From TrEMBL, chain A:
InterPro entries: Asn/Gln-tRNA_amidoTrfase_suB/E (IPR017959), Asn/Gln-tRNA_Trfase_suB/E_cat (IPR006075), Gln-tRNA_amidoTrfase_suB_CS (IPR017958), Gln_synth/guanido_kin_cat_dom (IPR014746)
Annotated Polar residues bias: 34-51
Keyword rRNA-binding: no
Name of protein: Aspartyl/Glutamyl-tRNA(Gln) amidotransferase subunit B/E catalytic domain-containing protein
GO CC terms: glutamyl-tRNA(Gln) amidotransferase complex; mitochondrion
UniProt entry keywords in alphabetical sequence: ATP-binding, Ligase, Nucleotide-binding, Protein biosynthesis
Molecular function, one GO term: ATP binding
Top-level lineage group: Eukaryota
Database matches in Pfam families: GatB_N
Domain Aspartyl/Glutamyl-tRNA(Gln) amidotransferase subunit B/E catalytic: 66-113, 150-326
Chain spans, region Disordered: 26-57
GO terms (BP aspect): glutaminyl-tRNAGln biosynthesis via transamidation; mitochondrial translation
Organism: Balaenoptera physalus (Fin whale)
TrEMBL record, chain B:
Membrane-crossing segments per the record: none
CC per GO annotation: glutamyl-tRNA(Gln) amidotransferase complex; mitochondrion
Listed name of the protein: Amidase domain-containing protein
InterPro entries on file: Amidase (IPR000120), Amidase_dom (IPR023631), AS_sf (IPR036928), GatA (IPR004412)
Any single Pfam family the record assigns to this protein: Amidase
Native source organism of the sequence: Balaenoptera physalus (Fin whale)
SUPFAM superfamilies in alphabetical order: Amidase signature (AS) enzymes
Alphabetical GO biological process terms: glutaminyl-tRNAGln biosynthesis via transamidation; mitochondrial translation
Residues spanning the signal sequence: none
Amino acid sequence: MATPMLRWCCPGRRWIFAGIGGGSRHGRGVPTGSTSSGKRGQSSVAQQPLITAQKPRKGESEWAAVVGLEIHAQIASNSKLFSGSQVDFAAPPNSLVSFFDASLPGTLPEKAKRRERCCFADAGSLHDFMACHEASNEMPHTYWMHKIQVLNRQCVEAAVMTGLALDCHINRKSLFDRKHYFYADLPAGYQITQQRLPIAVNGSLAYSVCVGKRWSQMVTRTVGVKQIQLEQDSGKSLHDNLRSQTLIDLNRAGVGLLEVVLEPDMSCGEEAAAAIRELQLILQALGTSQANMAEGQLRVDANISVHHPGEPLGVRTEVKNLNSARCTVPMRDKEGKQDYRFMPEPNLPPLLLYDSGSLPTGADPQQVIDIDQLRERLPELPRVTREKLVRQYGMLPEHSFALLVGTDQRLQSAQPSGGGMLLRGL
Amino acid sequence: VSAALKQGQVTPTELCQRCLSLIKKTKFLNAYITVSEEVALKQAEESEKRYKKGLSLGDLDGIPVAVKDNFSTAGIETTCASNMLKGYVPPYNATVVQKLLDQGALLMGKTNLDEFAMGALGSDTGGSTRNPAAHCGVVGLKPSYGLVSRHGLIPLVNSMDVPGILTRCVDDAAIVLGILAGHDPKDSTTIQDPVKPFTLPSLTDVSKLCIGIPKEYLTPELSSEVQSLWSKAANLFESEGAKVIEVSLPHTSYSIVCYHVLCTSEVASNMARFDGLEYGHRCDTDVSTEAMYAATRREGFNDVVRERILSGNFFLLKENYENYFVKAQKVRRLIARDFVNVFNSGVDVLLTPTTLSEAVPHTEFIREDNRTRSAQDDIFTQAVNMAGLPAVSVPMALSSQGLPIGLQFIGRAFCDQQLLTVAKWFEKRVQFPVIQLQELMDDCSSIFENEKLASVSLK
């Protein structure tokens, strides 16, 4: 897509459109009103491990932590969610920005490239629609969005497959919303996401965590998956404190993201890290995301509170942009309450999915998404692979964990197998 | 005019020059924000070449058109009449603009509007094609929502905006609609099918037609002149054999408030992109991002726009969302369903006034605040936008003051062709004294010489 005519500011100004890679900030929430325009976001890398239960002092009772996670995984698709712009991490700054990505006035979400299209909406007859007396958040005008609409097929399939792999219920109908906040890397002033009715809900993620000092002391825990939603990524801000300016690269603006929300079922950093690693492996096995934290393809926000056991939960604090599952964050950030003024996205009709039982007759398979078909196509998940290794080769469980590592981890030698999950050579 | 071009009675360049001359003479009206003289003359030259070779592109080849300044035009400043977009030159054409240009139309310039179309003048979100049409004695068509692409139309309310067409007669409106309508891959809210250009049949027999008169539209504020013309029109149809019945749109009285909540909410959202970072106005503040946003938006938007943004953001707050936005959506459904019920009962077309009265003088116009005025002016037109239906205002007669009055026809969704057919029949019967171009220029010459007319600035 042609680079839009963005303004280059003269020295002395604060904002310049350029990009020097790195420095990712996931645009969620507005930092507290600081007078310095330089410092933004919380791309913090900590020196100490995550707060675990502190050792109780004499006379004081223990602290318990409650951790929930919001994980953003960049979808491994060729083009962006709502525009035909290419997705390429290594491209020169602001070279993959369509007019819509740049939020030029008058632009609308549009079709992906030909081969990635799929059909997704058919709001039925007006009579049926109007006959429904129930309270509905749908905007009535979506009726007029006719039979076949278009969304990026790869992105929708990625969301469905991830939902299936996490035992979620896949919503046959899901909706898009606008989430409003002001930030330089969010040109529209809002992000298109799925807050009200996301594509998948109520799943679970099983992971194993070491409880003792030895590998053999591994236990399986489960964390609830509250929901999975499709949403747009924001652009990237690079803070140049030396010159008191911030550089903006919009290449990433509009790239499809999967947000996986994990319930606050975890109680410490080790559990959180283990859960994230397992999710990473799953995403890589599915091929839905490369989930490489170092490249910003997987970003984690943690919601943490501490309390004394038996007492009510403490104040929840949100920590943004954990970039590594190892060095996790102690920095507490107390944000003011942010109201995102969610509103249905008026330019997109509901996303409709089908299964083999509900496929419309005569539907072009290229134009619809069949959940059952996707289920059949699911590759073997890491959990299953490990079980096989234990069952068929008599391997110790702890060794099966050591063998299956994500592409983030360093490897001695590797034999690539589907989806980026690598087996270390024996 | 198209016929005259085809027959060589007038050349595109001559036509263009005449228009430019008229624009210059009426400059005091401030109707144009940007006059694209060079562009238009160049296009005229190319059109002339095509005519000489006998290769005209169609009915619109060489026809001068003007486009409201909230449509994106490549290389031509697009401001939405707002300081916020002063100096903004888009890199792309709105789909409807492109379609006109592809047909050889000459782009004379960008016309004025209320800032970001938040007033009585605007592209049709609440009536702002039909209202001015009624006041000026021209045809104003709002097509069905989804029939014409909104790509490049700088949005006010995405779920209600429709590009509106203003022409001198119903046949012209049909020609333009035939060119503009149809699927656009760049706008997911357009219908899937392409639309072929069509010619309107000349209806002679209206005995199978059923005209509905919504009783709730008979309001005390309606001027007696308009009311009497409305009755006259109804009688006209009846006397020619059509069935004319009273119908009810019971939720009419809620539509203004409902419209206000939904409109301001969407506006607040759509205006969020105007932050001074990428395009448009940016203030000089260097202190912090927040300060820059605040100052830019205060300087860039006038108080009407800021008021609507504040209202909209209020309605979208978490604690208010259910009570305002969601409720308004439910009411919108009910309003849309009112129309569906009426059309399902056998009515083909509804006949209503377009405006409460003829155009009021400027001094009276500015007396009321924007919100009251909009509420008053849009009373007959905005429910149509909420229901997504096609509607057209057709001039009927001059008032006792010599100002035009028009009436509105409302049709079923996507039955724009049928709607225009009925409108054409009506237009033929009432024989409204349409102003002729030459006459207009002569009048303007005399006005121009007598420059006592105050400069009117539409803000």
